[in-house]
Design a protein that fits this description.
Length: 186
């Protein structure tokens, strides 16, 4: 702050005791002006009541005059609709719902029973199919085992024939070898 500001001047003015004031001090004319200015500044900066009251009056005037109480009529219509809905429509809907609830419950129970029956049938079909599958599997296994036994017997028979053929060939070659050795010795 500058040295000649009113706040600085007010702080330098000594307070003189006065019997006229409640707190016992009187203030000089310069201090009174400063206090008055500070009060005005305070009311303009910090006291918004006059501005708010003016804006509120203006808003009400605009709302009532220019709109012709249209919002009030709309609000009244909404209030009437709500009261009619809560007094007449809602109880009627509740009664209809109670009446229909029994029918819906019966339908749901019937559907539940039908689904339960279908589920039981499906489980029975699964058991039957499982039994058929297992029977087919066992049948296939027995056929496979029979086939494998037959193949084993054929293999043994072929091996036996092969061994006999090998023996015959060995005997034939041995005899040919003997004949050759006889001819070579001549």
């Amino acid at each position: 702050m500058s040295s000649n500001s009113p706040a600085k001047a007010a702080s330098t003015v000594p307070l003189i005791p006065s019997p006229k004031r409640e707190n016992g001090y009187s203030v000089g004319p310069a201090t009174q002006l400063i206090i008055k200015d500070v009060g005005e500044i305070h009311s303009r900066l910090l006291d918004h009541r006059p501005i708010i009251q003016g804006e509120t009056r203006y808003f009400i005037k605009e709302f009532e005059e220019k709109r012709g109480h249209r919002e009030m009529r709309v609000l009244e219509n909404v209030k009437n609709s709500l009261s009619e809905t809560s007094d007449h429509v809602l109880p009627r809907c509740t009664d209809v719902m109670r009446d229909q609830f029994g029918l819906v419950l019966k339908s749901l129970e019937a559907a539940n029973l039908t689904i339960h029956r279908l589920q039981q049938r499906e489980q029975e079909n699964e058991k039957v199919n499982m039994a058929h599958t297992q029977l087919r599997h066992e049948n296939f296994r027995s056929q496979w085992e029979a086939f494998m036994k037959e193949q084993e017997q054929r293999r043994l028979a072929i091996d036996e024939e092969h061994n006999k053929a090998v023996l015959r060939l060995k005997e034939q070659y041995a005899e040919m070898d003997r004949e050759l050795s006889k001819m070579a010795s001549f």
